[in-house]
């Protein structure tokens, strides 16, 4: 199976989870492509970042893979900011191509846990609008170790 893991990470938490998912999928025999979403400019102050998320900001991104037609499965990851996915994820979703016929997994990373379900719902709705069939939504707390990440994904990956 060919899988794309598309993610944004500011502090490294979502990057860590992405690396673990990448290792798990490769152990299963998947061909994996990692797509890191990077905004051209971003605030370094967390309160400003949350404000941008709250108001659904859509920053310009560095050029990245937007055509996902060659993939069978999509993992989409984001930190939770102000009960929403990070603004860069919104921009990516607006600009990526159709996801018709793809299965998708949404994942978020969080510190406090406030808003994680809402952020996952937002991501799920946009993926469904683009034609993907979302098979799972999962959240990972900051600092979660690889064993727990693998445990949370074990049932999902057998679908």
Tell me what you see in this structure.
The chain is an alpha/beta fold and 159 residues long. It has a single domain (2-157), classed as 3-Layer(aba) Sandwich (Rossmann fold), CATH 3.40.50.360. It has helices at residues 13-27, 46-54, 87-95, 116-129, 146-157, and strands spanning 2-7, 31-36, 73-81, 84-85, 103-110, 133-141. Strands 1, 2, 3, 4, 5 and 6 form a 6-stranded mixed sheet that branches. It is globular, with a radius of gyration of 14 Å. The two termini are 12 Å apart. The model has no long low-confidence stretch (mean pLDDT 91).
Shape: globular
Report the sheet-strand fraction: 25-35%
- Residues in helix, %: 25-40%
Based on DSSP secondary structure assignment, what is the total number of beta strands? 6
Which parts are unreliable, with pLDDT below 50 for 5 consecutive residues or more? none
CATH topology: Rossmann fold
CATH class bucket? Alpha Beta
CATH-defined superfamily: Flavodoxin domain
What radius of gyration results from the CA coordinates?
14 Å
Total number of helices: 5
Distance between the termini: 12 Å
| Average pLDDT metric | 91
**From N to C, what is the helix and strand string?**
EHEHEEHEHEH
Largest sheet report: 6 strands, mixed
Number of domains: 1
């Amino acid at each position: 199976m060919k899988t794309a893991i598309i993610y944004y990470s500011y502090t490294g938490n979502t990057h860590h989870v992405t690396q673990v998912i990448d290792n798990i999928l490769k152990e299963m025999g998947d061909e994996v492509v990692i797509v890191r979403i990077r905004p051209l400019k971003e605030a370094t102050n967390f309160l400003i970042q949350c404000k941008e998320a709250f108001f659904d900001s859509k920053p310009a991104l560095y050029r990245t893979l937007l055509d996902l037609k060659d993939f069978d499965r999509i993992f989409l990851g984001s930190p939770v900011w102000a009960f929403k996915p990070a603004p860069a994820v919104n921009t990516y979703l607006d600009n990526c191509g159709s996801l018709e016929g793809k299965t998708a997994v949404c994942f978020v990373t969080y510190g406090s846990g406030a808003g994680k379900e809402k952020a996952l719902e937002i991501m799920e709705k946009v993926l469904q609008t683009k034609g993907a069939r979302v098979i799972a939504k999962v959240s990972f707390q900051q600092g979660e170790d690889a064993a727990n990440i693998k445990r949370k994904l074990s049932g999902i990956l057998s679908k």
